[in-house]
Backbone:
């Protein structure tokens, strides 16, 4: 028989809590007023019908291609920045560099974890809005805005991977006289390379989507073009742009799947 | 003789197998180089701004104004009534995130079972039918599409026909997360232990009974755990859909930025961080309740 749980920890209480929370959230909607704009239904229908067919004129496809490359280049640049910031911080946060009984260990780990946590908890678009206000509208602002939260995520996960490496090979290295640095470079890193690479690739995928919406603050890219087309009520162009975004993400997804597979096989 | 051959053969095999990953790595590095080159060559990258004193001066000014220095009245984040006034927005934002999770959870809960391959192929119970296969592919494509369109784009589309408030934002977040939740839940069903379902089928249970007594008990804890994890992401994103007039803290943040009310922006960011931390805490607590025994 299962040990009885206190009421506050029982699954039934959780179900009730979740349903209650959703019911509460419904009270936030202004049900008294019409939910649709006047003519909102028609524009929703227009939007849907514009998919058949999307705008496939060569001139617009060129615009799409350019916007896609813009978005991709921002994503690539920001993932480089994220790795450059996240990797050293992640190594520090994992505590792999200091010996377990060092007095420096706790402050170093905690401070790097705090930095990673802070940059991570602010959404990239909030970073973008703040950075644009601080240093002006430029690709630089976009790259930093994406790079900071992604560095936070990558750093945290890198630290977890580095901590989770099996102990035996490391002990062998240490007993052969390897320093913390040597244990890191010849022990921990090679052991978790496949994980590190495939996770970075996965985050690169995410960064493409993020870069696309980042152009909302005015940086050129797919999101910017979507905004322009929406403003002109050219819904068939919006669909083309959305399909282009889907295509890039699917392509990168396929690529990273192959890389992961090949890393696992070796 | 054999001993000297073994390592050589091993090395050769290893090299051949690594080719694709290594090739991809170099291709990726090349892509990064091209991207950086493109950013620097094409128009104003903004990096030259870093060398100008003016940029740092402006950034410093921006930061001091965020901190509320250099204005006549007390900064907004030190006035209790301002906290109270913006608290209503935080309350709405929280409601928006919960409603979004409700939409995503309900939508995924009603459909995920038909999107699992082992259900549509009939290997867990029920009979395979053409309709089942059609529904399976339809749902998988629907999930992929709703997931691939970013929530901000959903919000931009939805504010076109829904009145402002928390509903458009919640719907945008809900639709995006429906795709994520549906896929995760369907994969849980595909990975689950088939023995209980098969035992029930062998003793004559119908598909509905199998769902209720074999599939649901195994998948529901996973489902709720994923849902709570997504809630943590959603609360961070509520601010973002607010930027496109979908209500909540984000809308107010953008308005205040355009009016240069930077001390208000700080107040809203503080609320945002409070919400994010609070939801992380709540979600961790509830995930513990949903844990398996």
Residues:
């Amino acid at each position: 028989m299962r040990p009885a749980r206190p009421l506050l920890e029982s699954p039934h209480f959780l179900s009730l809590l979740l349903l209650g929370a959703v019911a509460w959230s419904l009270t936030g909607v202004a049900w008294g007023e019409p939910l649709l704009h006047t003519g909102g239904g028609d524009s929703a229908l227009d939007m849907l019908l514009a998919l058949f067919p999307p705008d496939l004129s060569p001139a617009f496809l060129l615009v799409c291609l350019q916007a896609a490359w813009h978005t991709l280049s921002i994503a690539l640049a920001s993932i480089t920045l994220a790795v450059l910031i996240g990797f050293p911080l992640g190594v520090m946060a994992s505590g792999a560099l200091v010996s377990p009984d060092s007095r420096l260990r706790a402050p170093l780990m905690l401070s790097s974890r705090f930095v990673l946590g802070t940059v991570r908890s602010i959404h990239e678009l909030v970073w973008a809005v703040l950075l644009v206000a601080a240093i002006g509208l430029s690709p630089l602002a976009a790259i930093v805005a994406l790079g900071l939260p992604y560095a936070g995520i990558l750093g945290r996960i890198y630290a977890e991977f580095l901590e989770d490496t099996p102990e035996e090979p490391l002990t062998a290295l240490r007993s052969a006289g390897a320093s913390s640095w040597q244990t890191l470079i010849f022990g921990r890193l090679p052991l978790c390379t496949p994980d590190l690479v495939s996770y970075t690739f996965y985050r690169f995928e995410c960064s493409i989507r993020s870069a696309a919406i980042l152009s909302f603050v005015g940086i050129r890219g797919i999101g910017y073009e979507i905004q322009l087309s929406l403003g002109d009520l050219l819904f068939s162009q919006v669909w083309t742009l959305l399909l282009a975004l889907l295509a890039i993400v699917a392509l990168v997804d396929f690529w990273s799947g192959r890389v992961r597979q090949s890393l696992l096989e070796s | 003789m054999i001993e000297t051959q073994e390592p050589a053969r091993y090395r050769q095999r290893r090299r051949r197998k690594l080719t694709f990953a290594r090739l991809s790595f170099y291709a990726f590095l090349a892509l990064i180089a091209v991207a950086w080159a493109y950013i620097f060559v094409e128009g104003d990258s903004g990096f030259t701004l870093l060398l100008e004193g003016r940029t740092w001066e402006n950034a410093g000014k921006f930061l001091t104004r965020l901190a509320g220095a250099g204005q006549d009245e007390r900064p907004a984040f030190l006035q209790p009534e301002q906290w109270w006034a913006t608290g209503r927005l935080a309350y709405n934002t929280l409601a928006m995130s919960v409603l979004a999770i409700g939409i995503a959870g309900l939508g995924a809960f009603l459909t995920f079972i038909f999107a699992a391959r082992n259900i549509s192929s009939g290997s867990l119970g029920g009979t395979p039918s053409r309709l089942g296969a059609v529904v399976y592919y339809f749902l998988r494509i629907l999930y992929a599409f709703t997931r691939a369109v970013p929530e901000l784009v959903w919000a931009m589309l939805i504010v076109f026909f829904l009145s402002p408030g928390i509903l458009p934002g919640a719907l945008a977040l809900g639709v995006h997360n429906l795709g994520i939740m549906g896929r995760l839940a369907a994969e849980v069903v595909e990975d689950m232990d088939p023995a209980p379902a098969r035992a029930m089928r062998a003793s004559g249970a119908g598909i509905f009974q199998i769902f209720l007594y074999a599939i649901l008990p195994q998948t529901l804890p996973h489902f709720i755990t994923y849902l709570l994890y997504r809630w943590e992401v959603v609360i961070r994103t509520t601010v973002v859909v607010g930027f496109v007039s979908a209500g909540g803290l984000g809308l107010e943040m953008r308005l205040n930025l355009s009016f240069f009310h930077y001390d208000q922006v700080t107040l809203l960011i503080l609320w945002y961080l409070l919400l994010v931390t609070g939801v992380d805490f709540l979600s961790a607590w509830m995930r513990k309740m949903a844990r398996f025994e």
User: Anything to note?
Assistant: Residues 55-265 of chain A form a domain with the MetI-like fold fold (CATH 1.10.3720.10). Chain A has a mean pLDDT of 83. Residues 93 and 111 of chain A are 8 Å apart (CA to CA). Chain A touches chain B through 74 residues (CB under 8 Å).
